[in-house]
Amino acid sequence: MSTALITGASGGIGAVYADRLAARGHHLVLVARSTGKLDALAHDLRTRYGIKAETITADLSDPTQ
Question: Which of 5, 11, 53, 65 could lock onto 42 through a cystine, CB 3.0 to 4.6 A?
Fold first, then answer.
């Protein structure tokens, strides 16, 4: 099983890609600024698709993160 890294996963296009890849059975590493949204998305995808989903809270526009 492959693993995909998705940035900006808490909404918009990132969330759509996360859902589509999870539906195809890929495990995910989800990255975004919003911990609450990331955790909710990861839980939803794990529940619906039986995949592994890890979350990383980070603002990738900040070089220190």
Answer: 53
